[in-house]
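Continuing the batch. This is chain 6 of the set; chains 1 through 5 are on the previous pages. Same settings as before, nothing changed between runs. Recording input and output for traceability.
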Amino acid sequence: MINRKRIIDRFNMGMSIFSYYINFNRICNLHDINIEAESFVSDICRILYGWDLKNANTISFNNSGYDLISEKDKIIIQVTSTDKSAKLIHTLKTLETVMRKESDLSGYTLYFVILKPKADESSKYMGRENVGYVCPNGIVFNQKKNIYDFSTFIEKVRGLSEVADADKMGSLDAFMNNNRSLFGPFEPEVPIKNNIDACIKEYADNFCEKLFRHLYKDAEVTLERVFVQPEIYDSDVPSRKLVSILGNFLWN
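Output for chain 6:
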């Protein structure tokens, strides 16, 4: 449970930093970050949703209407830092023109990823006729479900199970370790050399707060679902003295 919380907290922090960085670059009229963001979104979607995405501009230079595509999953994604309905309308009109010339995208599902914490404006658009966005024939688009923002990814991560989604959490943790400039440095695991190290690690991995006091009696420490029977030896210090020191360090 604590490992899951660590991953969620680390992901939330990284997304908060990334959101601020993108907004700052936008204010300064610096848009190179958008290119990096496309790769970032592609990796996140691959980990969280299993989509086999690639950059559409590597297939067709300066591709119009979408940035990422998965031919396997029949998905196209437009990545934008603009939370304006006009941007989405322009993309849909561009795709309509594309569909007139070629039908390769027929049956594809369109997603928008807004590089902001919350896509309030674009998701609430209804238009003059109160029908929302008009999608080109042949492309699937659900305004209520297919407009993602950073909060979408955060909620997805928060919903992961440490058991059922262990592979996803492991992949996400590895992704964050490879992007430490954004998600912060990971803490390398300390090698276990003796019973004291093992006991400390057991509690460090499973308890972040002193929810209740633990008791030591007759060289046994008991706790719900946890049993530790330390056998601590030192040539100069009696065993009971070491256990007492360890007990004070962990529980007092």
